[in-house]
Amino acid sequence: MLQDATQASTGKAEQEIRLAFEKKLSHVQKVRLENKFDETTPSLDFTFIDKFVLGDGVYRSDPDAHEGCELPCKSNMGQNIGCEYPSSCKCLEFAAVIEEELERKDSQLFQKYLQEKAKSGYFADTKGLPKRFPYQRPPKDNPLVPAKLQKFYLESRYPIYECNLNCDCGPVCKSRVVQKGRKVPLTIFKTANRGWGVKCDEDLIKGEFIDTYIGEVITNHEAERRETTGGKDKASYLYSLDKFVDDVADLTHDTCFVVDGQFMGGVTRFINHSCEPNCRQYTVSYNKHDLRVYDLAFFACEDVEAGTELTFDYMDKDEEEEDDVKRKREIAANDPDNKNKRLCDCGAAKCRGYLWV
Ligand SMILES: C[S@@+](CC[C@H](N)C(=O)[O-])C[C@H]1O[C@@H](n2cnc3c(N)ncnc32)[C@H](O)[C@@H]1O
């Protein structure tokens, strides 16, 4: 009898938690909750937000002050797709150069550019050189096909620059995708062995934008404090905005900001890790000069069938750091401290064994 009464009150409490969570979720467009395993619900200690919340000591540039593109960019150019000029669009100032085109057309200029790139990295002076627009727009005969990230950006992790509020190119410009927000419907669902996860209810094409990672933006000092006190899973929620630390003199790993999505964030905070993921996270900036606060955007890195769990690699690094990751993996394989690390249950054939190595 007593057991029956206890079970009934537990069931009622779980139902109330479920209702309270679903109420929170009802403010988020196109997201549902699914649990085919048990009666549990994600923690109510989580608040859905729709943009970064800036913590103490964190600042970002004012969108009104962003430098936008202007003539020759305008909204009603030939194809009515906004920016069209790869050598003169101001928003492409620091975008990736189309190196093969430059080399073919002017080998001397190409050599000069390589020297400048070796010296100044992402902020090389490449004025007037042909640049890559970030997205491939939908085919003319089927505008409903989503824009997708160009192969170069998908494979290289080069920062993506989108047009901003002060650009003359207008709202239909093809360089505006992440800023328009998530379009695809997602489900937060209970997995068999990794807590909650996220799946998409529609097919995704390779290069399609999914959503951004948002949360509280805090100083690195505060992130270190939270990591020390937050238990062994804390690192899974912290993302350093450190893309440009090697390119800017006064920006270091100690002074860059960090996004904490654990208690405040969006749906992407429920995405699990896989050592063979179907999504990747990319840097998206709307202002060439704000190197401290930019978007962390998830794109599908392969075609993904509706209902498949979305995953990304928590240890994903830029290509130039891959050797470093390999070295760390070898060290981790022999590290006695591994017992304190979270074991990976991604199930991939090439699973590395741990979430963090
Ligand atoms: C960013 S959260 C993802 C959402 C989480 N599953 C939840 O239920 O809230 C990261 C945490 O999920 C779990 N997790 C994610 N990927 C995992 C994996 N491949 N293997 C084991 N646990 C995983 C770990 O507990 C990790 O610290």
UniProtKB/TrEMBL annotation:
Keyword Nucleotide-binding carried by entry: no
GO BP annotations, alphabetical order: methylation
Keywords, ordered alphabetically: Chromosome, Metal-binding, Methyltransferase, S-adenosyl-L-methionine, Transferase, Zinc
Record-annotated SET domain positions: 184-315
SUPFAM superfamilies assigned: SET domain (SSF82199)
Superkingdom to which the source organism belongs: Eukaryota
One Gene Ontology cellular component: chromosome
SMART domains with a match to the protein in the record: SET (SM00317)
An MF annotation (GO) of this entry: zinc ion binding
Database matches in InterPro entries: H3K9_Histone-Lys_N-MTase (IPR050973), Post-SET_dom (IPR003616), Pre-SET_dom (IPR007728), SET_dom (IPR001214), SET_dom_sf (IPR046341)
Residue span(s) of domain Post-SET: 340-356
Places the protein is found: Chromosome
Predominant place of localization: nucleus
Name of the protein this chain belongs to: SET domain-containing protein
Taxonomy of the source species: Eukaryota, Fungi, Dikarya, Ascomycota, Pezizomycotina
